[in-house]
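Sample entry follows:

_____
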Amino acid sequence: MTRRLPAWLPRSMASRLSVILICGLLLAQGLTFGLLAYERYQSATMVMLNTLEHEVGTSVAILDRLPADERAAWLPRLARDNYHFLLGPGEAGAPLVSERSREVTQRITNEVGAAYAVKAQTVSMKPERYQVHLTLSDGAPLTLEVNPHPPAMASWLPFVFMVQMVVLLVCAWLAVRFVTRPLAQLAGAAEAMSPTADTRHLPEDGPTEVAQAAAAFNAMQDRIAVYLKERLHILASISHDLQTPITRMRLRAESLDAGPESDRLLADLAEMEHLVREGVAYARSAHGGDEAPVKMDPAAFIESLVFDYQDVGQPVSLAGMAHGVAMVRPRALRRVLTNVIDNAIKYGGSAEVASCRGADGALSITVSDSGPGIPESELENVTQPFHRLEGSRNRDTGGAGLGLAIAVQLMRSIGGDLRLANREDGGLIVRLSLP
């Protein structure tokens, strides 16, 4: 049973590794930045409290020893970013609510001593603002107003953080690409591997694991190629060697007196000869890629083939041609088109040939018929050797079940592809995609 993956989960290995690495790096970097910022905040706060504690004690001592009429002139000199002094009782407020304000008040009390009768009140919550009331030695009230605010962050710090994020993302992308690229090459080589063409070996370099995988794949590819060549060679040899005894049997049958038995024997021999010829053709189709490509106009080639059919009265027509120059293997293409057109005529009553070019410039040739079509479940099976369909496409109508198999193998041998599909208005359409 195949397990369906969630729709949000990336499908490719590269995307999954990218998500894992990027999220992990972002989380680690964010945690590191947060911990450093928190540690910096704690350190700055501790330094600020220690500084405030000693500076406030010094400032109160200075103001206590100054004459009353000179104290106002000293207030601006003793003011800081987060606190300043006021002469007088200050504002009425509520009890302290924050732990930090109580800690500051306690530190000031410890620093100046109990003689100054330190009291504190909160006068504002948003933003937080509280006042510490003291009484100088001459009985004059003194108020310390505190406006706490977090330590300022350097303007260049977010920029550095963003640069780090970019560097991490680039490194993660390079790492993922470095890891998945050999896998992509391996997948591409596996898709390009064909029993009808000599495929290139993967380079056996890079990391040890990648080199071992490439070497194993190359060895597997060589073994598969040897097995397939042996199979095709055996098929070709058997089909070829059968031609001689079949020919002798046919000559002997022809020497017999004419009659129903002689006719049936000759018909069986003819069917055997056809099957042997198809077997030899199938074996030879594996080497269609050995033919040298020729620069030619495919439209003129197809038109000439269609006219040959029309000259002998076959119902083959042209629906549209894409002109231009392309590199084509003529013999292989002619054999493919002949097999496909013959099938269209035999099972569909007629054939309609057309060609066009895709956006990438690749040539596509279609052969359509108006027959009964093929069940959707059998579209892939009919391209297998010796596979026949029931109904209109059975043994009684002739054929050895190798026509489409030969066409498919020839197309693959020259780097192309053959696809079957049923037409919406009835019939079958065969699409040949040339490289």
Q: What stands out?
A: The chain has three domains: 14-146, 197-286, 291-433. Residues 391-396 have pLDDT under 50 and may be disordered. The chain is about 50% helix and 15% strand.
